[in-house]
UniProtKB/TrEMBL annotation:
PANTHER family xref list: DEOXYRIBONUCLEASE TATDN2-RELATED (PTHR46363:SF1)
Residues annotated to bind a divalent metal cation 1: E72, D192
Organism: Pinctada imbricata (Atlantic pearl-oyster)
Family classification: Belongs to the metallo-dependent hydrolases superfamily. TatD-type hydrolase family.
Keyword hit for Metal-binding: yes
Protein name per UniProt: Uncharacterized protein
Metal-binding found in the keyword field: yes
Pfam families assigned to the protein according to its UniProt record, in alphabetical order: TatD_DNase
A GO molecular function held by the record: metal ion binding
Regions annotated as coiled coil: none
Keywords on record: Metal-binding
InterPro entries linked: Metal_Hydrolase, TatD-like
Length: 241
């Protein structure tokens, strides 16, 4: 238990997704078994770690029975703009490893002034159109967009799921409306541990997923238990596809 308080919405963890996205820390093998799943990729802030040897290692890990997704991968516009072209090159290269039967976990972060991620989403769609099938399973991690972006994703890529973290605590009205526009069978709960810890804690863990659920359930005006049940079904459907 990290320093801090007990979760104010206690949950029994029955599954989840562990993400390995720093090439220097790739495990030698991945042995997760359902309902615990694993994703392996390269975070856009760690692209310089993806040497050719690490790329081949990533390719091998993706073939492991314990790996159910490619990711997280993507674009992060919060970094110095001189790195953006390299991010795109690595993103496209890693997309070549995608397979139709495994979802792609997308890291999408706009500039500090673009909290919705409008600009980065537009560029995502340009790159994805050229490199994957429109029917590809997608998990947009840490989504913060409005209803227009939700519609854009589902129009371009109908098999998109939207993951929400405790960042939703600070959502604007347009972001709340965006959340309400997501079909109920496409919402996912995330903690992004060890990041986005509850305010009274220094470190996040999966045990705080109920706290995230409470925030979203309040916006959606549904019981927390209902949202937990929905998102459990959604996650199982996506990751065991």
């Amino acid at each position: 238990m990290p320093e801090g308080r007990e979760p104010y919405v206690p949950v029994k963890l029955v599954g989840g997704v562990a993400v390995y996205s720093e090439p220097e820390n790739y495990p030698q093998e991945i042995t997760h078994l359902p309902p615990w799943y694993a994703a392996v990729g390269v975070h856009p802030k760690h692209i310089q770690e993806l040497t050719e040897d690490k790329f081949n290692e990533l390719r091998t890990l993706l073939q492991s029975p314990g790996v159910s997704a490619l990711g997280e991968i993507g674009l992060d516009y919060s970094v110095n703009s001189k790195f953006l072209r390299e991010q795109e090159n690595i993103f496209v290269k890693v997309l070549s490893l995608a397979v139709a039967t495994k979802p792609i976990v997308l890291h999408l972060r706009g500039t500090f002034s673009d909290t919705l991620g409008i600009g980065v989403t537009a560029r995502y769609h340009q790159l994805l159109r050229k490199n994957i099938s429109p029917r590809q399973l997608l998990h947009v991690h840490c989504f913060t967009g409005d209803s227009t972006l939700v519609s854009d994703w589902l129009t371009e890529f109908p098999n998109t799921y939207f993951g929400y973290t405790a960042l939703a605590h600070n959502f604007t009205e347009e972001q709340i409306i965006g959340l309400r526009s997501v079909p109920s069978d496409r919402i996912l709960l995330e903690t992004d541990s060890p990041y986005f810890a509850p305010r009274e804690n220094s470190v996040n863990t999966p045990m705080y997923v109920g706290n995230t659920a409470e925030i979203l359930a309040r916006y959606l005006r549904i019981p927390v238990e209902q949202l937990l049940g929905l998102t459990l079904q959604n996650g199982m459907r996506l990751y065991r596809s």
